[in-house]
Amino acid sequence: MRKFQHKARNLATVIGCAAITAAAGITLGLPAATHAGGKIALQQPAQASPKIITEGRVVRDAKAKSGWALEVKARNATGTIQNCTVVAQLTETVSSPMSRVMPMPQVIWEKKHQLEVLPNSEIVRRYAVPAKVALKLAKAMPKKKKRAKHSNQAQQGQRKQPSPSLEMAARSFYRVRVTTTA
Hints:
The structure is a single chain. By secondary structure, the chain is an alpha+beta fold. The protein is built from four helices and six strands. The strands form two sheets. A three-stranded antiparallel sheet has the order 1-2-5, with no helix packed on it. The chain has a three-stranded antiparallel sheet with strand order 4-3-6. A hairpin with a 7-residue loop joins β1 and β2 (68-76).
């Protein structure tokens, strides 16, 4: 009885190893794609050409109470009137120079607006940024400095500033993301 169990175990080991080797050979030897991503890779629809092209940026605005605004441009390249919903998001990314990976941006303010863009034209809209967000922008955005009249004065001004390589504090980066929906 013991000999039979020993032979059966050896036979099962040989058959198991053969099955694993055959499965690996078939998997690696197939010429067709296996679609390992499953439904995720197949569900992404083809991108159609956009009817309205949008772009956005942060600007200083004297008319806004906070002094800052999001400027959104929407351009219609077609020959018909296009209606859409524009979603403008101001995102903040806080990054440290010592980190290896940039963190995900966080949406700190969002504005949705309905637009009607005439054929072959462009619309520019400004949305005032709230005061709480404007304080963050004012700290992060550098102010424009007047240029020195003489090169000696410019060199002296550069010597007084600390070296940027010694600054290891975290910095905030701001970006405007604009999307449209029909």
